[in-house]
Task: inverse folding
């Protein structure tokens, strides 16, 4: 990530959360994939992407999310997103990522959908 | 968040926020300011695709009324293909992208037509493509301009296109200070027929197409160089639930349209 602020949390009950802050662009690839690998340390069945502090995303960023989704699907994991502003929610709809990623308003909602609460 | 913090984000926010603005409003303004940076770069969400004014010779038989597709909605294996060419220091990344957006059709290989707005590439535009395929088939399809900024622009393909894809064109300064131009395609064949086509020479044709395009961009700036191509299979699995995408197959529909040309001519009222 260009912001260099990206953290991974174990949410318990087989879910991990990646907190995304700042920008998601092509430059984010290494950091995002490293965070995904770290999130997988605990073999979670669900990965939650927290976009609450997302400030900027371009089309390369969306491409990264697609490859992340493929990696999750390959490991039979579910991918969820929460904290998206209306603007980024629309981009998920426009790019039809919303058909493959479960989108929720809050962390609690996403965890509930992941069966982790 | 304080008023002072908000006023630093954008000039627009500075005008809106005042000393007696409530914390809730400031929070809302701050939220809007966060999205404002890239909002103008993205296409707006609409229902089905619509095409603006196009020349009479452009065929629009597979775009109007279709939805855009991402690689997640395609059938075949997922591929990431990256084509790069270095232009050295003769031009900046921003200059390359400005010129590429303004003259996009000029850089396409001959025999293929791109009918976009005369004003160049802008988010939300829908362009028609008439492509030359084997067997003298003129395949009619299109693209949606999903995203565009000063250093990149991205197309998304409609239902029935050969690929369910994101196609991103970008330029950047590499670690040596040289401007590198890149086309990156993240794709799945849209249906089983196009998947067979890809395996039977389609990949080679696709690679040749983008190599030729990048060489044309480089030549425009007076540069002759080789194109570096990287192909990665991101997902080997085929998505059989999308096999029915074949109902929109633009090759089949274009072929039927061509075969029916004499019938349409007969039906036209004589003057």
Result:
């Amino acid at each position: 990530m260009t912001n260099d602020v990206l953290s991974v949390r174990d949410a318990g009950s087989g879910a991990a959360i990646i907190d995304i802050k700042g920008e998601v662009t092509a430059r984010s690839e290494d950091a995002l994939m490293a965070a995904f690998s770290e999130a997988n340390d605990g073999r979670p069945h669900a990965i939650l992407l927290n976009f609450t502090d997302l400030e900027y995303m371009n089309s390369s960023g969306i491409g990264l999310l697609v490859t992340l989704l493929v990696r999750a699907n390959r490991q039979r994991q579910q991918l969820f997103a929460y904290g998206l502003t209306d603007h980024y929610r629309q981009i998920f709809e426009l790019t039809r990522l919303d058909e493959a990623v479960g989108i929720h308003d809050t962390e609690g909602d996403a965890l509930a959908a992941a069966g982790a609460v | 968040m304080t008023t002072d913090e908000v006023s630093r984000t954008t000039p627009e926010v500075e005008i809106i926020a005042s000393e007696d603005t409530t914390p809730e409003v400031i929070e809302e303004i701050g939220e809007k300011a966060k999205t404002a940076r890239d909002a103008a770069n993205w296409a707006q969400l609409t229902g089905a695709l619509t095409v603006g004014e196009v020349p009479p010779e452009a065929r629009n038989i597979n775009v109007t009324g279709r939805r855009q597709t991402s690689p997640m909605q395609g059938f075949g294996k997922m591929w990431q293909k990256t084509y790069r060419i270095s232009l050295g220091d003769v031009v900046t990344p921003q200059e390359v992208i400005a010129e590429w957006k303004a003259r996009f059709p000029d850089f396409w290989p001959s025999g293929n037509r791109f009918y976009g707005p005369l004003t160049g590439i802008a988010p939300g535009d829908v362009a028609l493509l008439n492509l030359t395929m084997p067997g003298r088939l003129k395949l009619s399809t299109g693209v949606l301009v999903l995203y565009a900024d000063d250093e990149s622009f991205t197309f998304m393909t409609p239902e029935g296109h050969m690929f369910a894809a994101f196609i991103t064109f970008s330029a950047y300064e590499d670690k040596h200070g040289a401007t590198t131009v890149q086309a990156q395609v993240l794709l799945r064949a849209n249906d089983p027929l196009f998947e067979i086509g890809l395996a039977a020479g389609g990949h080679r044709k696709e690679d040749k197409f983008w190599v030729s395009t990048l060489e044309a961009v480089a030549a425009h700036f007076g540069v002759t160089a080789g194109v570096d191509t990287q192909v990665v299979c991101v997902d080997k699995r085929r998505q059989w639930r999308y096999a029915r995408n074949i109902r929109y197959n633009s090759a089949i529909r274009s072929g039927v349209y061509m075969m029916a040309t004499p019938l349409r001519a007969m039906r036209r009222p004589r003057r």
